[in-house]
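Page 37, continued from 36.
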């Protein structure tokens, strides 16, 4: 086999990163770069695709330089990406017809409402496992077709290509030779039937999207062509693609049904592996493709909380009660569990399992003695309570994780993880390498390139750093959860 390293690109919402691993999944070098966010109107969020591309080429060059590596040293490339974000470009010139519309963008809320009134919600839910919500790519594509001059005609003439960010990067890396995506990214578009694993004609016609725009859907570990762009410096095969949250599940070696990961970055995303069964949630969770390897589809149940680590940034930047996110740990340790103050960080509404976009945040239960320490601690606690709500919804859907694997920036906080274990009443495992997302992309590439023989071999590469065992008495947990449920009830827009 050619090369001694794997190269993984993680194109995230606020930054792009490239990490080079050896074949034992150890980090050899990495480089990261932020790029600008564009907010043209309230509720709209865009990225300049050229800025994304420039950041990806810069960090890829940077990581190769730091590793002292050239193309011949790389066995394969893996890509993971911010999901749902939508790009349309010209097949001939490669030029994008509009900025990338980011997953957070809400401009198609009314359009979704209209489709819901037309009765499309049940079909969407049944075929895609998703909700009729602006979050996903379908209505973003429709918006570009309907609002950018000449784009619909060009699309209908087969001159344009749509992609989520993985597809866009693949197109650029291969010099326009490959227009493909993987099943996890496809499963977030509202256009992909997760049961038949094919683009769905009925949905395409409901959103008035021409089939010719769409990429070919491949397995997560597959032959995606050869990246020959200058930033690589030679031909290297692209062998793995997965959306960021699915890549994190793979990086956590979550290959068995029931295995569950929770990622704590800006927000919190939980995915439970449900095996070959596409479980339809009756508790407002999403059904999604967790991975597709060797043609076998593994499904997942997913729930997301909009505000997790960003609540720490709120304490730091808006309330100005901490200097840095890590300071929250010492404060919580000194304060101890707070029983009467509840912070509900519903700054952008409540995500799963409530889906209440009009809810807003609140601090409840203040007394004369409540101060900064209680508010900081209660904010950390709120992230654990929200995870508990997701896990409870999963349990009601029949998936009861016996342990949860965590990753993301916030899991450096041991106090938070102990409280999380106490509230969930299951052990919380933190891996050695908490950068599960980019590691997942490297795993996929390594698997396809033959560096590792099977997903089971990948599982042996996963190393545990710490396990947090639940210690709290049931009575205390019940009292805390009752207080939290009451606080959430008070912030709901409809009670
Ligand atoms: P993203 O990938 O979404 O940018 P990261 O995985 O890098 O996020 O995590 C960063 C988030 O974690 C920030 O929102 C920060 O507030 C939070 N964070 C980082 N360290 C800690 C800590 N020790 N305690 C609590 N939160 C933390």
């Amino acid at each position: 086999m050619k090369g001694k390293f794997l190269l993984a690109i993680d194109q995230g919402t606020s930054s792009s990163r490239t990490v080079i691993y050896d074949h034992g999944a150890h980090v050899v070098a990495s480089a990261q770069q932020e790029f600008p966010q564009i907010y043209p109107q309230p509720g709209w969020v865009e990225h300049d695709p050229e800025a994304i591309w420039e950041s990806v080429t810069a960090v890829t060059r940077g990581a190769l330089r730091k590793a002292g590596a050239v193309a011949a040293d790389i066995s394969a490339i893996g890509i993971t990406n911010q999901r749902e974000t939508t790009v349309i470009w010209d097949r001939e010139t490669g030029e994008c017809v509009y900025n990338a519309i980011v997953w957070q963008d809400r401009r198609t809320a009314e359009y979704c409402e209209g489709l819901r009134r037309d009765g499309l919600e049940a079909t969407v839910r049944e075929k895609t496992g998703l909700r009729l919500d602006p979050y996903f790519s379908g209505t973003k594509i429709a918006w570009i077709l309907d609002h950018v001059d000449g784009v619909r005609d060009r699309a209908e003439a087969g001159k344009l290509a749509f992609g989520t960010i993985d597809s866009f990067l693949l197109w650029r890396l291969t010099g326009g030779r490959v227009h493909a995506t993987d099943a996890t990214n496809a499963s977030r578009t509202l256009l992909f039937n997760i049961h038949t694993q094919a683009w769905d004609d009925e949905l395409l016609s409901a959103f008035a999207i021409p089939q010719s725009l769409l990429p070919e859907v491949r397995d997560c570990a597959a032959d995606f062509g050869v990246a020959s762009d200058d930033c690589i410096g030679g031909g290297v095969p692209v062998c793995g693609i997965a959306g960021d949250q699915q890549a994190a599940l793979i990086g956590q070696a979550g290959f068995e049904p029931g295995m569950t990961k929770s990622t704590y970055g800006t927000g919190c995303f939980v995915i439970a592996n449900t095996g070959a069964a596409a479980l339809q949630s009756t508790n407002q969770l999403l059904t999604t493709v967790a991975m597709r390897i060797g043609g076998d589809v593994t499904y997942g149940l997913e729930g997301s909380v909009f505000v997790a680590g960003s609540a720490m940034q709120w304490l730091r930047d808006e309330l100005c009660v901490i200097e840095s996110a890590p300071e929250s740990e010492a404060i919580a340790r000194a304060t101890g569990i707070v029983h009467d103050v509840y912070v509900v960080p519903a700054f952008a509404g409540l995500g799963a399992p409530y889906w209440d976009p009009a809810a807003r945040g609140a601090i409840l239960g203040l007394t004369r003695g409540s101060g900064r320490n209680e508010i900081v601690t209660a904010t950390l606690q709120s992230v654990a309570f929200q995870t508990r709500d997701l896990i409870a919804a999963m349990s009601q859907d029949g998936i009861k994780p016996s342990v949860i694997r965590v990753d993301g920036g916030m899991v450096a906080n041991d106090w938070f993880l102990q409280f999380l274990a106490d509230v969930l009443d299951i052990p919380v495992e933190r891996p050695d390498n908490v950068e599960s997302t980019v590691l997942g992309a490297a795993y996929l590439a390594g698997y396809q390139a033959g560096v590792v023989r099977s997903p089971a071999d990948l599982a042996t590469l996963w190393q545990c750093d710490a396990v947090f065992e639940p210690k709290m008495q049931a009575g205390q947990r019940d009292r805390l959860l009752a207080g939290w449920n009451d606080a959430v009830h008070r912030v709901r827009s409809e009670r």
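The longest strand covers residues 296-305. Flag for discussion at group meeting. Residues 344 and 488 are 7 Å apart (CA to CA).
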